[in-house]
Design goal:
Rossmann fold, two-stranded antiparallel sheet, elongated, 5-stranded parallel β-sheet, alpha/beta, 2 domains
């Protein structure tokens, strides 16, 4: 589970050609406790800024001169090879909302801005983004033995995956016999079945 402090420390980029909109969004976010906020009024800078900083969230205006938000998202897709664009679009045009979602945006906020809506949508998207990042790191770093399915911890001790996850996350485990094991792997009359059933009922 993510702590509120983790979400508030996430890197956010505001992209809007109107200075008043940038100032308003910055004020909203800073007032809510967000600590790492950057901004640009030039949509042509967004892709390079994202390459350098890999923001957890981009608040992107759709209608900007020179390069609109849809073109910016196309550029971001070429950089974000994992396929997840951390983009929350801003629009005053209802017909642009569905188009933006189809283009890869994860959500939208309507103009004129509503403080409660902006903060809720920002929080929700950041929570999802940071959880996905945590899962990716966990998946890429777990050294699991292909034979015994145990995992090596930081001190080179081997332990069960369940023990490791319990120690490093807030995950809880429930125990029972799945239908596949019940029907295919274990015969009801066997000693193995009786031991497994007793263990499951006592967990």
């Amino acid at each position: 589970m993510l702590a509120s402090s983790d979400i508030l420390k996430a890197d956010i980029l505001i992209v809007d050609d109107q200075e008043a909109n940038v100032s308003l969004l910055e004020e909203m976010l800073r007032g809510a406790g967000y600590l790492s906020i950057a901004s640009t009024r030039d949509p042509r800078e967004v892709c390079e800024l994202y390459r350098q900083h890999r923001y957890s969230l981009i608040l992107l205006d759709l209608l900007m001169p020179g390069l609109d938000g849809f073109e910016v998202m196309e550029g971001l897709k070429a950089i974000e090879t994992q396929g997840y664009l951390p983009v929350l679009v801003q629009t005053a045009q209802p017909e642009h909302k569905v188009r933006a979602l189809k283009a890869g945006a994860k959500d939208f906020v309507s103009k004129p801005f509503d403080l409660v809506e902006v903060l809720l949508r920002v929080h929700n998207l950041l929570e999802v983004r940071l959880l996905l990042a945590a899962v990716k790191v966990l998946n890429s770093l777990l050294p699991i033995c292909s034979y015994c399915r145990r995992i090596r911890d930081g001190k080179d001790y081997w332990q069960s995956v369940e023990d490791y996850v319990s120690q490093h996350t807030d995950s809880k485990f429930s125990h029972g016999i799945c239908p596949d094991c019940f029907g295919k792997q274990v015969r009801p009359e066997s000693e193995e079945f009786l031991v497994g059933l007793a263990s499951a009922q006592s967990s």
